[in-house]
Amino acid sequence: MEGDAFSAFAITALRLAGHLIAAGDRLAKPAGQTSARWQVLAAARRGDMSVAQIARALGLARQGVQRLADVLAGEGLIAYADNPEHQRAKLVRLTDEGAERLGVIEVAQAGWADGLGAAFTSAELDAARAVMARVMAMLESDGASGG
Questions:
Q1: How far apart are the C-alpha atoms of 52 and 63, rounded to whole Å?
Q2: Where along the sequence do coiled-coil regions lie (predicted)?
């Protein structure tokens, strides 16, 4: 029975992910970006991360993040810097133009999140986040990913 409940949870989570990506695309569009590019820009702002490290942090494939990073670099929104820890794995840095675009997105996102967040109590959101974090930790552990 718990498997049925978990399956329903997983289906709902996947549907939510789709809605969040679509909303992210709408929020990022005025800055000429997509939700995927937004994620890479936000990670680049943290600084001193390689493409592989960004991919791991976002739970994405390195090749996909590399492709996005190359496009963002071509547009002058990020720049690659030498990595003292690894000769070939460059660090990804946000440029001033990238920071400006990211700022536009984050202002829009803050208003959007405030509007949606007002429909829930902090306790409800904390409980939902805690369950999601536990599921992610289980899936990230060895052998639990179904593969």
A1: 9
A2: none
